[in-house]
Amino acid sequence: MKRLFLFFCFLAIPLFAQELKENTSSFFDESEVKEFILKNIMVEGEVESPGMVDLSTLPIRNLPVKEFSFLNGKDKFIGSYYYSGYSLFDILNSKKVKKANQADFKPFVDLYVIVENDKGEKAVFSWGEIYYGKDNFQFLISKSVNAINPSKLKMKWPFPAEPRLICNRDAYNVRFIANPTKITIKSFSGNFAKQKPAEIFSPEIKIISGSKTETIEDIKSSVEKRKYKNIGYGHGMGYKGVKDVDGYLLKDILKAAMEFPYAELQNSIVCVSAKDGYRATYSLSEIINRSDNEDFLLSDRSDSKEDGKYSLFAAPDFFVDRNVRAVEKIEIVRVK
Questions:
Q1: What's the rounded Cα separation, in Å, for the pair 69 and 73?
Q2: N-terminal to C-terminal alpha carbon distance within the chain
Q3: What's the CA gap between 165 and 183, in Å, rounded?
Q4: What is the pLDDT of residues 261-312, one digit of tens each?
Q5: pTM greater than 0.70 (yes/no)
Q6: Is CATH 3.30.565.10 the right assignment for the domain spanning 205-334?
Q7: Regarding the domain delimited by 26-187, which CATH topology (the fold level of the hierarchy) does it fall under?
Q8: What's the pLDDT tens digit per position in 42-62?
Q9: DSSP per-residue string spanning 78-92
Q10: Residue 80 CB-half CA count within 13 A
């Protein structure tokens, strides 16, 4: 009799779980779930022990996404989804970084990450957007998905055919590559000062992309300005006080200086540097393809020989480490 009772209890478990799902207050779990079979992920580049990552040992993260694309010259809404999967943050945490330029520049702020699949498609991320942000789990390799369908319409968003890299901060889905299999960590390579000069003030900024160079001396008044109240906190030195920071939108300055084809948002890295050799990397997508309106600012500090003429303020970051004083150069490189 006892065994029979336990048998019926066991049969009731799935029904009970379904009942709980139907009565939840969440809008993210109201449809059927599609599961994916993932390929192994190799992590290589500037790490101590390159090799495969055992995804089964990592936590499952969840992410709601409104997917938007640009097809045939027009904006196109693809669908709304709730993804579960493994974050780039957790995957990269399984490997210890060994910087190639450790002797010259210790901070991790110049690192970037290349995610690619067997077809050769690449998506580029800065180390900072994964590790210095206020929410570290915005980039997932999907393990499962369910559609967030409109409750008052008789329609369903189509499921993606394959597991994909999901980027919740991206306005356009340029970095949503299918079946990623390899992740490479690199530090930005360039010509930078190894010793601090007597004065780091730069009266202008050179914007360099391929063979094209534009020089910015005075930012036009037509460029949008923003003001943020910032509670400064550095990774090394901690609390730095509260300041009102105002500045020009970096994305508008870059777009005014250069033309960026849609495809370049997927695999371009940006390095912002000063005369003293301090630099930080950002993906082109995190600067000009954001969905959260937390934009990078160039602040005018013309009256300060220490901070001027322009300083970069990384508004999306939790830490201040990717702020760059006295910006001299902005390099945009397409990763091949």
A1: 10
A2: 68
A3: 12
A4: 888 899 999 999 999 999 999 999 999 999 998 999 999 887 777 767 899 9
A5: yes
A6: no
A7: Sulfite Oxidase; Chain A, domain 2 (3.90.420)
A8: 999 999 999 999 999 999 999
A9: EEEEEEEEEEHHHHH
A10: 11
